[in-house]
Amino acid sequence: MPLQWLRGRFAYTPLQTDDAAFSGSLPWKGRPSPTIFTLRQLKLAAFTILGLLLLSGVGVYNRDQIEAIRAAYSTSQHDESPDVKSVDWSRFAYVQYVTNKDYLCNSVMFFERLQELESKADRVLMYPSIMLADPHEKEHEDSSDDAKLLILAREKYNVKLDPISVQHRTGSDPTWADSFTKLLAFNQTKYGRVLSIDSDSTLLQHMDELFSLPPTTVAMPRAYWLHPDKHILSSQVILIQPSQVEFTRITSKINNAGRNDYDMELVNELYQDSAMVLPHRPYDLLTGEFSKDNHQWYLGSDEEAWDPVAVYNEAKLLHFSDWPLPKPWLDAPENLVREREPKCVAMMDGLGSCAARDIWRGIYEEFRERRERVCDTSPPETLDNGRRRRRSRRRLEH
């Protein structure tokens, strides 16, 4: 299922109350083209916003402020301005980290999506050096599947390969044992700014506008699903200004981390009171949000009506989180899927809506189909190897 189909079907429109009408009346309408600021207007807007933040004493960016900066640096082919073209995009990079073959595929999918969305910033992939010792190596017959995928990322999606050592720590939860590896992004000092995004996610829109925010060591959204009153930062999206000073602080924290400390605990300990806060709408949406009965924490209000179509349409990043359902590249029992998927809801007019369920199913289906397409490193089938494969299958069948 191509992303265009999914986004086309659920492009923004007021939520329908009739499922039949819903499934057939959501043509792609696109997003309105934002007004492009001139460079002078951009500077004025940035200083105005920064001044308001300083006066309020809170480094929190709301959605309107982000929209203003996004409009100024919009990179779509329809509304690009001379000011945008003059940006030195080589100073900025999206950074992914890899610890195993599953997440390698996820990262390549992430970069494939960035290319499709015409993002202009560099792309950097930090990967275990054992997968490909020489990042400039050419593919050959004996190349491993991991090496082939890395070379594919470099050649097809213009990814800069950076071999690293995985930062492994033995803790109480093996799921997050290698999560400190993402913090090596603080050492990408050749860039003025890097954007680290977890790869167990689906990118719906690029985030190039974030590179134009006022200077700050880190900018992160809140983990809105975790006790909003505690103001916990989410490490799923981190805008970083790399420096040797900060990397030294990070390294020290990693070396002294406790058994229950992982990347999220570490960045909160260091930056909870100083980070610029990005709005989680639209930068950090959990797929599990579509299954909830109460959406107050995500919406930020108990007065705003939950509209899954509008929420999906505004989102830039969907993070797969439907525990106990496993990640989409792992098999799950059908009964567990049915248990965790969003339920159809009754509307005031007596009709039902399955919009949330259909969106949720579409997200998972699109991810699986794209994963199979993007990460297939098998050689193109020729007449000879096609015959060999068919003979091999017949032997197995008999």
From TrEMBL:
Gene3D superfamilies: Spore Coat Polysaccharide Biosynthesis Protein SpsA, Chain A. SUPFAM superfamilies: Nucleotide-diphospho-sugar transferases. Residues 375-398 are annotated as: Disordered. Residues 387-398 have a biased composition (Basic residues). InterPro entries: GNT1/Glycosyltrans_8, Nucleotide-diphossugar_trans. PANTHER family: GLYCOGENIN SUBFAMILY MEMBER. This is Glucose N-acetyltransferase. It comes from Colletotrichum melonis.
